[in-house]
Specification:
Blueprint (H helix, E strand, L loop, with lengths): L3 H15 L14 E2 L14 H4 L4 E2 L15 E4 L7 H22 L8 E4 L17 E10 L10 E7 L7 E7 L9 H7 L3 H4 L4 H4 L6 H11 L6 H8 L10 E9 L20 E4 L8 E7 L3 E6 L9 E5 L4 E4 L1 H5 L2 E6 L8 E9 L13
Antiparallel strand pairs: 1-2, 3-13, 4-5, 5-6, 6-7, 7-8, 8-15, 9-14, 10-13, 10-15, 11-12, 11-14
Helix pairs in contact: 1-3
């Protein structure tokens, strides 16, 4: 699977044409390469072994290494997977319908009022007082009908919804556990599970003597009792705790960046986050061993730095519609990153689907509830 998110970009472009808008950033960038014997990142067998060995990674067009160099373990996929245009459109429509379902659910009269929680902060020395979020945010726990389930709305996904997270124009919804991953993510999930970097996290590799290839997924599936399909998610829900067919536990952070008002050149709407859509941060442990960021509808600029107030130029990436950015190793655990507005995204909505996984059940992202 090598063209999945490119097809998403095509579907996004078609939707933009139908709505009378176009996005100039939908052209495909050059495929990144790894200077080693490893396959290039566009291959479904992509591995981060080259990065671990210190080999040179050549980022795609639109990505620029900063003064501290390219973050080890950071990879950009301009193309990913190979669904039909109908499948790609299904992901976009499914994400939009899911946002509608979240909004409808949170407005129901039987939903409890918001709770104030402590947002876990980065370790000392990795916090930028100028750019990090305030320590508290309000959320509501929801049970959301999944519009992409078969039949539609026949399954319910539990989540925590933050109506205002990075700013009043940023809503965040957190789905934790395989049984809570919305069905519209299935094509992306299937493609991710073909990557060596994902298969390498499988706890069954150790039992099989290593090797994260596709064969280990089959063995893992047998051990999880999942058969040839995705029944292991049902096992997890039933209390088996075995994870998916690779023995992995997933979470999704659904970010909805809503169009900001016209004339906000000074960035007043994003002032709390230092002008960012999502401020400097290192992903929480609850996000899993890797972070995979898929962009829909409109582009953003992603910046990476050794720490939030590091001197010099940060590494920059154009996260175009249809791209996937993968953080592993030092890029995931040691560097900080943030999302900034892209000039071509003015007045447009952006959706980012942030997936992470781990070989054990993920801890909760939320801090202690405030009484």
């Amino acid at each position: 699977m090598t063209l999945f998110l490119r097809s998403l970009a095509v579907a996004t472009r078609s939707a933009a044409v139908r709505s009378g808008t176009t996005t100039a950033t939908l052209s495909r960038a050059a495929v990144p390469t790894v200077t080693s014997s490893q396959p290039p990142p566009a291959s479904s067998s992509f591995s981060t072994a080259a990065s671990a060995a210190g080999d040179e990674y050549v980022p795609p067009k639109g990505s620029v290494a900063g003064d501290a160099g390219w973050p080890p373990g950071l990879f950009v996929f301009p193309n990913f997977g190979e669904p039909t245009p109908q499948m790609a459109k299904g992901v976009i429509d499914g994400a939009r319908n899911l946002l509608v379902s979240v909004d409808e659910t949170r407005l129901r009269p039987d939903v409890k009022g918001p709770s104030s929680i402590g947002i876990p902060q980065p370790p000392q020395g990795r916090v930028s007082q100028a750019h990090n979020l305030a320590a508290e945010r309000e959320f509501v726990p929801l049970k959301v009908p999944d519009p992409s389930s078969d039949p539609p709305n026949s399954e319910t996904r539990s989540c925590e919804h933050f109506e205002h997270y990075g700013s009043q124009y940023h809503a965040l919804t957190y789905f934790r556990g395989n049984h809570n991953i919305p069905s519209c993510l299935s094509p992306i999930m299937r493609a991710l599970k073909e990557l060596d970097v994902v298969q390498g996290l499988s706890p069954y590799n150790e039992a099989e003597g290593g090797g994260g290839g596709s064969g280990s997924g089959s063995a893992a599936n047998e051990k999880a009792g999942g058969g040839s399909g995705s029944g292991s998610a049902a096992n997890e829900k039933a209390g088996g705790g075995s994870g998916d067919e690779l023995g992995l536990h997933w979470k999704l952070t659904l970010n909805n960046y809503k169009p900001r008002p016209e004339g906000d050149e000074e960035g007043a709407a994003l002032a709390e986050a230092g002008g960012a859509l999502f401020p400097w941060h290192t992903d929480l442990e609850a996000n899993g061993q890797i972070t995979c960021i898929a962009t829909l509808l409109a582009p953003a600029i992603l910046e990476f730095a050794p720490h939030a107030d590091a001197p010099g130029r940060p590494t920059t990436i154009e996260a175009l519609p249809g791209s996937l950015v993968l953080l592993s190793g030092a890029a995931r655990w040691e560097w900080v990153h943030r999302a900034l507005p892209h000039p071509d995204a003015e007045g447009k909505e952006r959706i980012s689907l942030v997936l992470g996984c781990a070989p054990k059940s993920l801890p909760h992202m939320l801090g202690q509830k405030k009484e």
